[in-house]
Amino acid sequence: MEPFTEIDQLVRRPGDERLPPLDRDLSPEERTAVNEFLSAAMPGLAADLKRLSERDEPAAAERYRRVFPRLQRALELRERNPELYQLVLGGLTARRAMMDQARGLSRMDKEAPDFGAKRRELLDTVDHLLSVSQQVRQIIAAEKVKDRAALVERIADWAVQHERDPGERRNDDREGTDRPERRRERGEPRDGERAGGPDDGDEPPPPRR
Q: Are 26 and 70 within 8 A, CB to CB?
């Protein structure tokens, strides 16, 4: 299983690559946001866009229109939680460095003089990435706690308002709602206590001896 997937999940959705291009040119602010993200996540693409902008602006504008919809999740995070977004950018940069270092190490002879030093560099990068990942998880957990608290408040407010407004209770009854608590409020017996019982007045069979 690939590590650090929680970072990817914050900035990518399944199927993002199949989204249609934007039907307008990006604003300067949107281009800046796209370049910032690509510099951390896909520096090769960021460099290509920069060169294309200098050489052929209409072609660059078209390329930005194709790229922008695929980054919506990342850019939404940028607006919603800038602290988490910056942490994610750092994580993407560190993960790219980890894979570059691992690629170089995989091609080295283990007996090479600098093999040990290169491996320590890789271990340091992985350790840093683990720290970033833990911070990301902590922020996500804190957001879930806040979301849950807000949901608890909304449900409690709804329940109080529902019981305060007799019109809503009458609507329940008109819609056929016949809950046990409603029957108790009206002083009606429970199902097992209804006259005649479940067999329309028949005597229950005698117990077996």
A: no
| Residue found under tokens 């281009």 | 31
Cα angle for residues 103, 105, 106 (degrees, 5° grid): 65
Give tens-digit pLDDT for 145-164: 878 888 888 889 888 888 88
Question: Taking a C-beta distance cutoff of 8 angstroms, is the pair 101, 118 a contact?
Answer: yes
Give the dihedral sign, CA 89/15/71/143. Answer: negative
User: DSSP assignment of 127-152, as one string?
Assistant: HHHHHHHHHHHHHHHHHHHHHHHHHH
pLDDT (tens digit per residue) in 47-101: 999 999 999 999 999 999 999 999 999 999 999 889 889 999 988 888 888 989 9
- Give the SS3 label for residue 21: coil
DSSP reduced 3-state for 176: coil
In terms of Cα–Cα distance, which of 100, 101, 103, 92 is closest to 129? Answer: 92
Three-state secondary structure string covering 48-95: HHHHHHHHCHHHHHHHHHHHHHHHHHHHHHHHHCHHHHHHHHHHHHHH
DSSP-derived 3-state class of residue 114? coil
State the pTM of this model.
0.59
- Quote the DSSP letter at residue 24: S
Q: Do the beta carbons of residue 35 and residue 26 sit within 8 Å?
A: no
| Backbone phi, psi, residue 124, to 5° | -65, -40
